[in-house]
Each structure stands twice: as C-alpha cells, then as structure tokens.
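hi! just following up on the protien thing from before. the input was this:
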Amino acid sequence: MIIRDETEADWAGVRRVEEAAFPGPDEAQLVDRLRADGDLTLSLVAVDGDEIVGHVAFSEMTAPFRALGLAPVAVSPTRQKTGIGAALIRAGLARATNDGWRGVFVLGDPPYYQRFGFDVALAAGFRCRHAGEHFMVKALGAALPALSGEVDYARAFAALD
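and the predicted 3d structure came back as:
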C-alpha cells in the first residue's frame, strides 16, 4: 500500500470509498464541494495495487493562525481497523507540518484522535459552531501561536449542519 496525493483520476475511487465508509452521501458530497470551491488543501489517498482503499482530506480554516481542518477520513469497509486511516492521518499531519501550517482542528472521537496528539482542552479557548467535547486541535510545532479566537471550517461544511 502507498499513500500519495490525490489526482483527478482518483476522484471516482475517492467517492466510492467515502460512500462505502459512511452511512450516507454527506462526506462524499463534502469532498466534492471542497474540491469545487478550491478549498481542498491536502487530499491523500491510500492505494493498494490500483485500488483506492482510503482517503483523508484537509481544508484551510479561518483561524488566528494558519490552520487546517481534518475531515473526512474514510477507509473501505473491508480494510477498516488495519491502520490505513491512521497512516493517512499521520502522513497528512507530517505534510501539513512541512508545508508550514501551525495547527489542525478535528471534530471526532477523542480516544481515537488523541493518539495523534489532538487535544480537547487545547481547543476549549476557540469559538466555533462545532465547539464541544468532540472538538480538538493539534499544534504543528512546539505550540499553537494563539490559544483562543474564532475558528471556522471551509464553507462546504455549512451544508452538513
């Protein structure tokens, strides 16, 4: 299995993985909207042979520093719980760090995302419509440049509310 940047030739395969991994079409539509809006900052695929088995998306957020939102992460149902999602997240975080981003926000299951360094308490100072017990942030580098302020996801996320 390799992890690489998504290409236009991957779009149908990414859509298949997103639709298979989630109970409805929302996440697949979100990725399509992020792409169409030009807000899909980093999009990685996990490929086994010539089959896309996983996908992760990062989009720029409005924040008091250069920040990305991590969502969605999708893995083909037959390949879930094999480390593909974790590998995609780690590769995306490494790339974001190398590209000079200062933090990544995620809305998800704290026990899962804490192992990557995401922190609910660190996100508590930020105002966001998604703030709460599942809203987390990870500093990329020694520390976040700010510990409070207004943050928001790319406009495509508004369709999920």
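The domain at 2-160 is CATH 3.40.630.30 (Aminopeptidase).
The longest strand covers residues 51-61.
cheers
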